[in-house]
Model the fold of this input.
Amino acid sequence: MEANGREQRGLEIAAKSKLERSGDRWFVPSQSNGGTNHGGKYIVKPDVSNPHCTCPDYETRQIKCKHIWAVEFTVQREYRTDGQNETFTETVKIRKTYKQEWTSYNAAQVNEKDQFQSLLRELCKGIGEPSQIVGRKRLPFEEMIFATTFKVYSTVSQRRFMSDLRDAHAKGYISKVPHFNSISNYLESEVLTPYLEMLIEESSLPLTAIESDFAVDSSGFSTCRFVQWVDAKYTNKSLMTKREWVKVHLMCGVKTNVVTAVKITDRFAGDSPIFKQLVDTTAQNFVMQEVSADKAYLSAANLQTVVDYAAMPYIPFKSNSKPTWGLGTQQTQDQNARWRRKTNLWRQMYHFFSFNQSRFFQQYHKRSNVESTFSMIKAKFGDSLRSKTKTAQINEALCKVLAHNICCLIQSMYELDLKPEFWAEPIN
Ligand SMILES: [Zn+2]
Done:
């Protein structure tokens, strides 16, 4: 599974970006920050017997990383399309088995827009009419959600989106074509928010049999197209205060990148307290085996949350972490027992982390998939928000996540022969 994950990421990198090359060196953009840092590229030498990459994954584990895979896929693709890279067939192993994956990947891409509408329609059908909506409206609620999510998926301006909407109407996905201003009005509705969260959860359910390992992280979306979260967070903190941000916290499955739980907060909200909510939501639908998160999430409570679901937490300890956790004065017997349970767990995990580092990092590496998930969402649907008000920004960000999940399902339909069905138990 582990090697598979890197391969899959490599395939995505190869599909998304055009890799530059100089002699036998290839330059692969780093994915960890939306692929947008300046000159953030790793150097890959795709030698068959001894491939090499400058990324931390390769440096620490010396196994084929996603960047090496990406170069191999790129070489295969070029070889297949122009037949002129014969010198490379000598140095890079061509693996026939991937022809299949390319075919399904391409098929998924070609049919995506049609499949997207059809799956989105199926999803929206289950939601019914909320009682909170009053007054006259042109579209039924489920069609409002269809139209807004399809709009965010399309990434074009409202006016240009109208031809997509007419197309959706012609295919029977919506009963009327709304006025082009309506979509942004729909996004302003607070009623939408819990429904979008519910649809994101629902859209992950067809993958319950496939996902057992999960990863958690957060990332910001800004209202300015020219300001990137990574720059604001790490290099120029004043950008944090000048612009509007929403922060998206999510948990995803590491095999398909499907988002299983999401929470949106303002830009300054801490990561660690959101962790439990994401784990709890995911645990309602999935049998969890592993949960990985970076050290910002390290706390005895978060470790306990994962263990309570009989899953294994992979959260690295900090350099100043101590093998024992906290020393409180416990008043009651009950508090005492809880404290002992937590401190035992902390000590166990601390020792596992300290003395089995290679095993720890082998599993912890799956965390990078949540970064890929954010990269995929931002690359495909943009990392900025068009909406002007807070509520609309939250809804717009949720629409991006929902659109991402539907794309994950489409990919799985082609790659894993999945046939998604929603709303197994009818809701009222
Ligand atoms: Zn690498």
User: Anything to note?
Assistant: Residues 42, 53, 55, 57-58, 65, 67 surround zinc ion (CB under 6 Å). The chain has 18 helices and nine strands. The first strand starts at residue 20 and ends at 22. Confidence is low (pLDDT under 50) at residues 34-38, 81-100.
